[in-house]
Amino acid sequence: MQETPFCIRVGHLLLYSMADSNTTDFTNPSTFILLGIPGLEWAHAWLSIPFCAMYAIATLGNFTVLFVVKRELSLRAPMYHFLCMLAVSNLVLSTSMLPKMLTIFWFNSREINFSACLTQMYFIHGFSVMESGILVAMALDRYVAICDPLRHSTILTNPVVAKIGLAVVLRGGILGLPCALLARQWPYCETNIIPDTYCTHIAVVKLACADIRISSYYGLFVLFCVMGLDMFLVALSYTQILRAIFRLPTKDARLKTLGTCSSHLCSILVFYIPAVFSSLTYRSGQNVALHFRVLIGNLNLLVPPMLNPIIYGVRTKQIRDRLLRLFMHKDI
User: Fold this and answer.
1) Which of 237, 226, 241 is nearest to 179 (CA)?
2) Cα–Cα 20 to 30 A to 219, which of 208, 226, 279, 308?
3) pLDDT tens digit string along 141-192?
4) pLDDT < 50 stretches in the chain
5) 34 pairs with which residues across the strands?
6) Phi-psi category of 108—alpha, beta or left, where left has phi over 0 and alpha has psi -120 to 50?
7) Measured on CA atoms in the order 282, 284, 285, 287, is the torsion positive or negative?
8) Alpha-carbon span 56 to 82, nearest angstrom
9) Partners of 59 in the β-ladder
10) What pLDDT shows up at residue 1?
11) Residue 173: is it exposed, middle or buried by C-beta count within 10 angstroms (0-12/13-18/19+)?
């Protein structure tokens, strides 16, 4: 039997060593590569203009809501406390993803640290659950205000509102943790390229070379059992609200009462429709173009923060009047 030459054996060892080193690097990746919007790389600079404008409007609008509610002593009802929580949630969600997106679009800086990717994932998923909980709390406020108006101030006292707010924050913070923790434990041995502008749970774990069913099941649990339960509670509240409204004696009274819910209804539609559509297309949208799916995911995090302060600023008389007084005072 002919002996293998020494130089060939050394070459085999070197190749094996290099392959093992590459596998180790991918198993514990130090960075991920965000592609931006695949297929629309040529339009990144142009797309950054509307995205940047939406972020600017969202930031200015939500800070304005926080400023007005803080300055106006008459805006101390539970609805305005929940509205401030919604504004903070909107600011965190939009800020979690847009700065990195702009560095990709403007400077072609596609790398993101593994820990930073998991942190971004935690904030996006945790605060999305938080925002859903805030909308449920606002639905509860509308239900008590319309169906039992005489007891509204005794039911939703400041301590009760604080406990509801704390429960919403804790629920979002706790439910966001498993997404990041599960993604951290998987080995990544094929690629570290994410075809997106930010780190979503499902996009990251799809890169793992392991059985990720537990991550998929948990994502579906959050989507259907948590967000689904929230949507059911909102629908249940508005079923009772509509029944109470239709029992009112005059058309004007019915329209006026329904008008107090219009802002909240718009926020519900703006949040849940893109969120559910984006989650479903990420999991089963094989026939949906990748660039379309990524755009929907980005708009899902930017459109609600942009529209919510506009909706409440236009539709809520107290906030609108306070803003008009501020501008008129400056003009004088």
Assistant:
1) 226
2) 308
3) 999 999 998 899 899 999 999 999 999 999 999 999 999 999 998 888 878 8
4) 1-25, 332
5) 194
6) left
7) positive
8) 22
9) none
10) 43
11) middle
